[in-house]
Target: DUF4233 domain-containing protein
Amino acid sequence: MRVLGSAVLSMEFLIMGFAMLLAKDSGEPLTLIYGAVVMFLMIYAIRLLKKRSGWIFGSILQIAMAAYSFVVPSMAIVNVMFVGLWIAAIIVGRKGEAARAALLAQGNPADRKGDEK
Model:
């Protein structure tokens, strides 16, 4: 779950950088400051993904990325894709963790072979 979430946030970090390049022509420095803050918070959110609060914070950052669509309208299309990837990372990650927990509950098959002898 953490790997998928960090991949999505890392790609969004790059996308936000490219969006800031487009926004620099708008002439308002606040748009660049907002973009830089969101980029910094994405890197911070990657570190927090070990905990549930990191996933909540990452979800809030999805809204912050959507707000940047008002500055760079083409970001709306990209945002829809990345929100979908974020939701997929949560769903697939939970399934993966459940499968991993089930395998760990069964024990290591190599240990069972040693017990039979």
Notes: The longest helix spans residues 75-106.
